[in-house]
Amino acid sequence: MDTTNPAVSPLRQRMLEDMRMRKLEPRTQEAYIRAVRKLSAFLKRSPDTATVEDLRNFQLHLVDTGTSPITLNATLTGLKFFFDTTLGRSELMVRMQPVKLPRTVPAVLSVQEAAALLAATRNIKHQAALSVAYGAGLRASEVCRLKVGDVDSQRMALRVEQGKGAKDRYAMLSPVVLARLRSWWRVGRAQGKMLPGGWLFPGLDPMDPLTIRQLNRAVHDATAAAGITKRVTTHTLRHSFATHLLERKVDIRVIQVLLGHKRLETTSIYAHVATDLLREVLGPLEQTPPA
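RESULT FIELD:
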């Protein structure tokens, strides 16, 4: 984000500096600024003049205009930073309450569908990247930010640097994923795209990494080519990774570590979509005498 633009107001400049001091991610900074901009548009005046009643009416406005729970809560988080940190007036947010998010289960591919999707990926770089997303359970952002040096073939691990929550961790590296990475590395090096110590999946400019948008576009194309009718994103491959491990009786606490989840509760959602586990359960009706 540009923090030196002379057209930026002193108030916004201070908020930008507050976020920069705390090293917030660029996307987080953009979301927080967007939240304050929404409030300004609603008030039709500077956001630092808002009262408790103004903020309450603003939340009612968001609800009445059909704002989704996720967007609404994200807006409140941005406003909380603005009032608590930038203005030092935390008392203004006392009546702003986040809404409860609906509990949903993620879409998951079968093992056969995941294999078909990867096989239908025409670009070898995209196939290797999606193989990492499914074979190691990485987030799209984590896949895109991998560097060549993050592949540890001796320990059969992938180093994930500064994943979600600004934490480093190691992810699993299977022989199949390693073989696909080596195939891509040979092709990428021959094409002059693999720079020493550079990105494992470079973008059009080798100095830049592959973007999340480009990766999701590759998933959509492969999904259509494989004839899969489910709505699939790169994150669906991560969900599928966790679900398939659980169905293979891998301890859920191990899966939690591999996914980089802070809380076991987050990982436990996959118990609701592991259909192989459900099929193994003997229902009470099966034990009753035949009619």
